[in-house]
Amino acid sequence: MGEVGNRESKAKSLKSVPGQRHPGLDTPVQYLKGVGPKRAAQLAKVGVTTVGELLFLVPRRYVDRSRTLPIARLRVGDEVTVFGRVMASSERRTRTFKRLVSCMVGDESGTIEAVWFNRPDLAGRFRPGQELMISGKVTAYRTKQFVNPTFEVLDRARELPGANAIIPVYPLTEGLSVWAVRRMVRTALDKYLEQVPETMSRELLEHYGFPDIRRTLETIHFPRDVRAAERARNRLVYEELFYLELVLALRRRRNTLARKGSRLVETGVLTARFREKLPFQFTRGQEKVLAEILADMASDRCMNRLLQGDVGSGKTVVALYAMLVACENRTQAAMMAPTEILACQHFAGWSPVLREIGVEARLLTGSTKARERRELFAGLASGKVQMIFGTHALIEEKVSFDRLGLVVVDEQHRFGVMQRAALLNKGRNPDFLVMTATPIPRTLTLTVYGDLDTSILAEKPAGRVPVVTRIVTEDKRATVYEYFEKRIASGEQAFFVCPLIEESEKLELASAVRTYEDVRAAFPRRRVGLVHGRMRSEERQEQMELLRQKKLDILVSTTVIEVGVDIPDATMMLIEHPERFGLAQLHQLRGRIGRSGKRSVCVLMIQPESVEAMERLSYFASTTDGFALAEKDAELRGPGQILGTRQHGLPDLRIADPFTDREMLARARRDAFRMIELDPYLREPRHELVRKTLAARYAGREELLRVG
Ligand code: ADP
Ligand code: MG
Questions:
Q1: Ligand 1 atom 13: the closest Cα is on which residue?
Q2: Fewer CB within 10 Å: C terminus or N terminus of the chain?
Q3: Which of 275, 311, 313 is the best mutation target for the ligand 1 pocket, counting ligand atoms within 8 Å of the beta carbon and taking the most?
Q4: Which helix (H) or strand (E) holds 168?
Q5: Which residues is 135 bridged to in the sheet?
Q6: What is the atom index within ligand 1 of the atom nearest the CA of 286?
Q7: CB contact burial 306-315 (16+ within 10 A = b; e otherwise)
Q8: What DSSP line would sit under 50-87, residue for residue?
Q9: Which strand ranges, in their side-by-side order, compose the sheet holding 404-409?
Q10: Three-state SS across 507-573?
Q11: How far is the CA of 345 from the centre of ligand 2 (A)?
């Protein structure tokens, strides 16, 4: 029994404790003196199961007790930490029946109220005389207040002897006080610090004046002053980012520079005719990114390029052009999309033109029939089929190509790294183009996409009128419907987007059906359709086709329409419960309208209780700039959500924040890329430690170093 437990904890600590494995550091934290099963369970919630993980539990910040403000000097808007005693506490309900716990806190200078909404766990928690450390933003509601602040109950009796005025703030753990964490960390440091191996090259440590690993760990938990703590934290931040960038540098080398691809040079045999058939001219932006793509394809290195462009900026046609160039060179081209709707749309939209210019293009999805499938597989294997559009079905084992020259992945964030790799492996070093309509803040392109070259399609085709976004409350619903009705009468179309219900597909379906019924009742003279994720894809397809042919006036939908759907006459959208969506998602949804020259409106139907989401929603209403929204999203949600490093096969960032630690990121990137440029296999003795550390962290996952 003990053995199994051990092995498990080893596997875990490999992921998160930097450096080579060390038996002592893999000791389950529960075996540490003073840590019983209860504490161990609390620690597990913040990802700490071993002694090593406890040592690397980095405080989020530090409070210097000698420098906190007296309560009387607090001003509204300040983000602060203060110390004070509980003078009184109470529980009550607000007028809107929310439960509220309130606590009056004071020091020698004055008092402030702290209130928490919907925190039944805090009922009865506070007693007069208790000393609190409270952190939050000062607001005012009758008196000065903290709303939902974080806090610690201080307990002098349990304070460590010799601990000084700097108090580390650890990631929140329910029921685990700073003091308890500090005690456990102290024990772990005393017993195990000697066993922690160095993981950074001495050269780099010296260059930046960073402390060695043991000093670093001692300091982050028990700093002499805030500056020392910052330096120690910076070392860990730098190290984390350095290894991330090192993986990217290796990937880039292997995927781009060290691999010989085919030279695919535009001949014009197909592309010239394609241009003639297009109903529009390429924009300058499209020509520019196309030139970048074609230059990569024409060189003998492998293309690994990310094409970013806002929704509706016209990326697909650019990708298609590149695919034609691949076909001109007697190679095949594949485009993979995340949903069947999207794959079908690409195919349906472009196959007539492709047929006219004599390209054999086909579609492969989960619902392609067995007979057609067999024939299609044969055509791909023989090279007769030149171009293929499809979904995940493309990466099935049975699919093989004669000579795959170019792989395009649309809306790539929907795919995992392994899926992308699986498609690439169907060719011999094909060129690779990934597209995303979710604009990515620059910092992120340096991290998760740091091994790709980037093209940005900045402008949209001329004649587009920006969508007007309105935030509307429930009581105005009838007015909105009247307005929609009028525009529908003149031939325009509308989307109704159902509330997102993440927890349950079943509930989501129920709510979609309800919305559908409501909309039908509200628009009795209109033809209303419904699409949702539980439908068979042919049914979904059929509804989209009806909409496109204007046999439907309104389409009620869940987020399945989020990505890429292109219906030019849809000019209205109503989003129910917009507060449940992220900014990026809302932006994608709104991108479904405003695709013609007509003025389009997007209505966000908010419920009175969604006031908390107002900042986000009004920002959304104020701009249609996808890049600005992406930055805001990152700021509001924190980078972790957006990064999804693990999905990219990259190490998780546990300490660094690529937004606030931008400068460190830039340095780490420069250093890592330079190291790989000078010593691609890390063979030099001075890089040995780095090589070993990297190998230990990626033990058993070496394939992730290879794929993009
Ligand atoms: P996205 O970048 O969101 O994938 P699409 O490629 O779907 O955008 O393009 C959106 C619409 O704009 C399509 O209907 C497409 O045919 C059209 N389009 C693309 N390029 C141009 C252009 N240069 N001028 C006018 N319309 C264009
Ligand atoms: Mg697209």
A1: 314
A2: N
A3: 313
A4: strand 166-169
A5: 81, 150
A6: 23
A7: bbbbbbbbbb
A8: BHHHHHT---SEEEEGGGPPPGGG--TT-EEEEEEEEE
A9: 361-364, 387-390, 332-336, 404-409, 431-436, 304-309, 453-457
A10: HHHHHHHHHHHHHHHHCCCCCEEEECCCCCHHHHHHHHHHHHCCCCCEEEECHHHCCCCCCCCEEEE
A11: 10
Helix, coil or strand: residue 475: helix
Question: What single-letter amino acid sits at 573?
Answer: M
**What pLDDT sits at residue 14?**
33
Q: Which is nearest to 144 in space by CA: 77, 98, 96, 92?
A: 77
> Whole-angstrom Cα distance, residue 119 to residue 98?
10
Taking the C-alpha atoms of residue 364 and residue 362, their distance in angstroms, rounded to an integer, is 7
SS (H, E, C) 407-453: EEECCHHHCCHHHHHHHHCCCCCCEEEEEECCCCCHHHHHCCCCCCE
Which residue carries 């007296």 as its tokens?
70
Contact 560, 531 (CB under 8 A): yes
Helix runs in 135-225, H state only:
178-192, 202-208, 213-221
Task: State the pairing for strand pair 99-106/111-117.
Answer: antiparallel
627 alpha carbon, distance to own chain's centre: 14
Beta strand 79-93 pairing with 468-473 = unpaired
Instruction: For residue 464, give the DSSP letter.
Output: P
Q: What letter represents residue 391's amino acid?
A: T
Q: Nearest 5 degrees, angle CA 220-CA 225-CA 229?
A: 25
- Between CA 533 and CA 531 the distance in angstroms is 7
Q: Which residues lie with the beta carbon below 6 Å from any ligand 1 atom?
A: 280, 282-283, 286, 309, 311-317, 437, 461, 564, 566, 595
Residue 708: what pLDDT? 41
Is the distance from CB of 236 to CB of 212 less than 8 angstroms? Answer: no
Tokens of 635: 């700021």
- Kindly state the tokens that stand for 85: 């005693």
For 77, residues 6+ apart whose C-beta sits below 8 A from its C-beta are: 137, 138
Residue 44, phi then psi, degrees to nearest 5: -60, -30
What's the residue count for the chain?
708
Burial (CB count within 10 angstroms: exposed 0-12, middle 13-18, buried 19+), residue 693: buried
Q: Does an H or E element contain 131, and which?
A: strand 131-141
Helix/strand/coil percent split, the chain, to 5: 45, 20, 35
- What six digits make up the tokens of 227? 């500056």
Alpha carbon of 76 to those of 79, 85, 104, 568, 678: distances in Å?
9, 20, 17, 48, 53
Please report the pLDDT score of residue 174 as a whole number: 61
Cα within 13 Å of Cα(538), Cβ side: 3
Chunked into runs of 10 residues, the chain (708 residues) has average pLDDT values of 29 39 82 88 88 91 83 89 92 80 93 89 87 88 87 70 72 72 91 93 94 95 90 94 89 74 92 94 94 94 88 90 97 93 88 95 94 96 97 92 95 71 86 83 71 84 84 93 95 91 73 92 95 83 88 90 73 93 86 85 86 84 86 69 56 77 88 92 92 82 55
pTM over 0.85: no
Ligand 2 center from residue 346 Cα (angstroms):
8
Beta bridge partners of residue 454, listed in sequence order: 306
Strands 387-390 and 570-576: unpaired
Three-point CA angle 416, 660, 200, nearest 5°: 75
Nearest CA to ligand 1 atom 26: 461
Cβ atoms of 419 and 432 within 8 Å: the answer is: no
Residue where the block lists tokens 């950074």:
200
416 CA from centroid of ligand 1 (Å):
26
Three-point CA angle 523, 529, 534, nearest 5°? 135
Q: Which two tokens stand for residue 329?
A: 């060179």
Short-list 686, 665, 670, CA closest to 203 = 686
